[in-house]
Every structure is written in C-alpha cells, then in structure tokens.
C-alpha cells in the first residue's frame, strides 16, 4: 500500500479519519470521491498543514469557531475560507477515531438506534457512533459557521461614517511623545 506524504484538503474531500499504518503510526485516511488513501500525517496535522499553507493555523481556526458559535467542544472549523471548506468532527478531534466530515458531501442522515447512518455524495454510507440529533446539530453548526464567516468577511464590522477632514492637517509629535491625533477626533464631536 502506498501512503501519500502530504495532502491539502480540497472541496472534493468527503471525510477523513485517523488510521494506524502497519507500523502502528497514526495516519489520516482520506476519502475523495470514490477513492480512499492514507496520508502520512494525522488528521489534525492535515488540517494544520492546509491552514498554514494559506496563511492561517489550526489553533486560530478552532478558537475563532468557538468564539463565533459560542460552542466549547467539537466545533466545526473553516479549513479554507477562499474555497468555502468547512469540516466538523463527530467527536473530540483529539480522539484517534474522530471522523472529520465535509457537510457539503452529506446527502442524508438516518437514525439507527444510538448510531447514525450518513449517506455520502459518492454513493457510499458510513455508520457512526453518534446519535442522529448530534450529527444533524454538527451539520447545522458547520453551515452556520460558514454563513456567519462569509457575512462578516463581506461586511466587516459596523460601517463608520466620517466627515471629510480639513486639508493640510499635519500630524506632529507633541511634548508628551504622542502624535496629535486628538485634533482629528475633535472634529467628530
């Protein structure tokens, strides 16, 4: 079996999970379309590799998701805001058997007692040890995170209206060592 050295998460990725190779090293099992392969990185390393490649990091993505959603555990994360890729874990991301799902590739969910069958976009399905309500809530939270982030990205913060400043005002350093920005602030009162 060939194990890929690196992989960057893409929109076509359906899911990934931890899997140990024949030497007992944790790798990432990745499903893309009808294919599945091992990558010589853990799922958390793949997430961090992908985020770092575009100028972000996993710790920041996790902290931001928790802040935006007000959640504390098992938060979805945006892996690539430019491509709109958001993944969610079915359990703690630090568990070796955690599965990261791309909600765009979930066609249907169905209760099977205390487990859930998840039908995937490639025609396959997977049964996970999570209740239907928990999985559906994770899908909803992932979609909510993407929508909120897109909205904030397109309209960052409240729009400030300002008066046209007088021409020729020069910022100078005062005796206190600070610049005279207060002259500009006075014009808004």
Notes on the protein architecture:
The chain is an alpha+beta fold. It has one domain (3-154). It has four helices and ten strands. It has helices at 43-53, 58-69, 132-154, 182-186; strands spanning 3-4, 13-20, 26-32, 35-39, 77-80, 85-89, 99-101, 106-112, 115-120, 125-128. The strands form two sheets. A seven-stranded mixed sheet has the order 1-4-3-2-7-6-5, with helices on both faces. It has a three-stranded antiparallel sheet with strand order 8-9-10, with helices on one face. The mean pLDDT is 89.
Helices and strands in order:
Layout: E1 3-4, E2 13-20, E3 26-32, E4 35-39, H1 43-53, H2 58-69, E5 77-80, E6 85-89, E7 99-101, E8 106-112, E9 115-120, E10 125-128, H3 132-154, H4 182-186
Parallel strand pairs: 1-4
Antiparallel strand pairs: 2-3, 2-7, 3-4, 5-6, 6-7, 8-9, 9-10
């Amino acid at each position: 079996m060939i194990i890929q050295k690196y992989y960057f998460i893409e929109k076509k990725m359906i899911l990934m999970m931890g899997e140990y190779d024949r030497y007992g090293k944790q790798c990432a099992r990745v499903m893309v379309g009808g294919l599945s392969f091992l990558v010589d990185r853990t799922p958390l390393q793949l997430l961090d590799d992908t985020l770092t490649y575009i100028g972000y990091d996993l710790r920041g993505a996790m902290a931001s998701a928790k802040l935006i959603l007000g959640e504390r555990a098992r938060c979805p994360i945006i892996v690539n805001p430019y491509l709109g890729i958001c993944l969610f874990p079915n359990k703690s991301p630090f568990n070796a058997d955690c599965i990261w799902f791309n909600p765009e590739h979930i066609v249907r969910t169905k209760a099977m007692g205390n487990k859930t069958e998840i039908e995937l976009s490639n025609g396959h399905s997977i049964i996970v040890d999570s209740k239907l309500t928990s999985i559906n809530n994770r899908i909803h939270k992932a979609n909510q995170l993407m929508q909120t982030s897109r909205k904030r990205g397109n309209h960052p913060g409240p729009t400030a209206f300002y008066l046209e400043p007088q021409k020729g005002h020069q910022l100078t350093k005062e005796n206190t060592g600070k610049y005279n920005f207060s002259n500009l602030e006075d014009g808004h009162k």
